[in-house]
Predict the structure.
Amino acid sequence: MNKDSNDYTIPMDRFNNTIYLLSRVAEADLPAVGSMKSTLSFLYLHEGPVNLPRERLKASEPFLEPRELVIVRWLQTRTNGNLRSKYGAKALLAARNANYRCVTCGFSDVRALHLDHIDGHTIDTDFACLCANCHNIKSRKMDWSGDKKY
Ligand SMILES: [Zn+2]
């Protein structure tokens, strides 16, 4: 397993790869096996769970890479934590289905990914996974309600 803390890109070959997921689960201590299965499914399966209970995240944290910790804390706050009402499962799906890459330019450092409210901050909005640059550029073009400024 690559534990290089400078590498904050998630390799593409992990997505929907149950053999890889099982190999990672096997590295966990026995009491954490179930939690690791939940956490890795939440992170890497496009059809996987859209919720991750906090205690499962906590139990799996010692077995996650730095880049995975960045992603999973970012998303779990939005599916199960205090940002749930503003984001929820749709936000997770936007990031996960984009394989944690900016949908505009492909940028892949997970520390600089954002979840953009496509139609502004409305209740029914969908989300897009954008890098900080593309998000900023879009924000300068559109105001918070989704209307074009320029
Ligand atoms: Zn971008």
About this structure: The helical segments are 18-25, 33-44, 54-60, 66-79, 89-97, 132-141. The first helix runs from residue 18 to 25.
